[in-house]
Design a protein that fits this description.
Elements lengths: L1 H20 L33 H33 L5 H35 L11
Helix pairs in contact: 2-3
């Protein structure tokens, strides 16, 4: 019975979450690329629609946004799943340990992401080198 409930929740939640968080793809749309910001703070600059090495700034910025987004989604899903496991553990020590482990790993993941950002900010504060911005000189 529990497996059927899990399967039903999975069938309902995955399409709902996927449709909620999908952004439109701008691959075929005519767009002013000079208005898209990058991690370095400046806009993507394309001259005469020729690809240059500075295009990697835009690519890196977009990939980083996707990675951070999916890390947040992974934390949220793991946290909900761990709570679900804990709620339906039925006071079974093995199931409670598995649920506790899932919740612990979710929290460790978020703490790791936050700690990595804080370390990069600390490097920027002490050295003045902004390692959080990806810029190609040119």
């Amino acid at each position: 019975m529990v497996k059927k409930i899990k399967y039903a929740l999975l069938l309902v939640l995955v399409p709902v979450l996927a449709s909620t968080f999908i952004n439109p793809v701008l691959a075929q749309e005519t767009k002013d690329w000079n208005s898209i910001p990058t991690s370095s703070g400046k806009a993507c600059v394309l001259k005469e629609d020729v690809a240059t090495i500075q295009g990697f700034e835009c690519l890196f910025f977009n990939v980083l946004q996707v990675i951070v987004f999916f890390a947040g989604i992974a934390f949220f899903v793991m946290f909900i799943y761990g709570g679900y496991q804990y709620l339906f553990s039925g006071n079974d020590p093995k199931k409670t340990a598995v649920a506790s482990s899932t919740l612990t790993m979710a929290v460790i993941g978020v703490v790791g992401i936050i700690a990595s950002w804080l370390i990069l900010s600390l490097i920027h504060t002490f050295t003045g080198l902004d390692v959080t911005k990806f810029a190609i000189p040119g």
